Amino acid sequence: xxxxxxxxxNASISMYFVFRADSSFDIGTGHIMRCMTLANALRDVGHECxxxxxNHYGNINSLLLENDFEVHELQVSNSKNNLVLGRNMxxxxxxxxxxxxxxxxxxxxxxxxDKRNPDWVIVDHYALDISWHKQVRSNTKKIxxxxxxxxxxxxxxxxxxQNLGADIGDYIKLVPKKCRLFLGPExxxxxxxxxxxxxxxxxKKRFGELRHILINFxxxxxxxxxxKVLKSLSKIKLPKNIxxxxxxxxxxxxxxxxxxxxxxxxGQIKFSKSITNMAExxxxxxxxxxxAGSTSWERCALGLPAIIxxxxxxxxxxxxxxxxxxxxxxxxxxxxxxxxxxxSFQKFYSRDVLLSYSKAASKITEGCGASALIxxxxx
Length: 379
Fold this sequence. Notes:
Elements: H1 2-13, E1 16-21, H2 30-44, E2 48-54, H3 61-66, E3 70-74, H4 80-83, H5 102-113, E4 120-124, H6 130-136, E5 142-146, E6 158-161, H7 168-171, E7 180-183, H8 192-204, E8 212-216, H9 225-233, E9 243-248, H10 256-259, H11 261-264, E10 269-273, H12 278-284, E11 287-291, H13 295-301, E12 306-309, H14 316-324, E13 328-331, H15 340-347, H16 351-362, H17 369-374
Parallel strand pairs: 1-2, 1-4, 2-3, 4-5, 5-6, 6-7, 8-9, 8-11, 9-10, 11-12, 12-13
């Protein structure tokens, strides 16, 4: 009888969420990944979730299908009529990421929403703003926006910016008065294994010994930084006990140039692609060489210091705040050829330096953002 009552209660509060997000070689994979993390958390407590995504070149929509989410795929428009910039779209710095005008995208989205009437539409897209929100509002009860660049207006009930340094002043003039703001890494959308492995990771890093390096530049590594970093590391006489883990994203390629480093590092290096155990790899790592995307909060939750490269404009603020908080060092591509990278890397041979950066990283977030947000949808 008690079990039946719980089932009835769960059924009565179950809601339907539709996510609108995209991935591609230009956009990257971070928007889809953080949305999928939230969708998994919602599904775990009994809610239903589905996705609306464009079929951009280099997308990872198949990953959503592999995780048993329904995906409604929108075609990228080749029609000149549908590529004409919609109202105020020319003011959005990322309008080219959409693959159509905003109003055509809203039209296609509404065709899907009209048949489903979701409780929430969750939008994670730099090319969509208040104009799009108002167009789809009649087909959903509420709207949530995930953002981190604060460069456009929104019509939403909830806005999440998980970045370090996000401030109410960034958004107060961009959202309605009724909108609830959830700001900072406290709400970072991390998979549950990062919270689960946090204590183990911090314990492993307690001595400040540099034995295991992680190299990871996200979905596609358009700047080919993986190869350039490996070339710079090859100029350093690494201690024999140091191991290198190179993790390529789903859009990455283990080309001949990268593969050749197997011989250069003589068994000290391992290559992986499209892995599902990033939390375990970060737990074993002592230093990451990485981009400054949403994976930054994964590293921080596990106390993993980093040498960070900003590979997109929206990552610059993340990098600045991580450096400001003592959790990482910021370098540019030029540093890989002028000797600056080698000097920065060797600083982490110091136990005190490595420990300091690890402790600072661990203070930024504990990795509980998804669970912290779940109850907010019922308020």
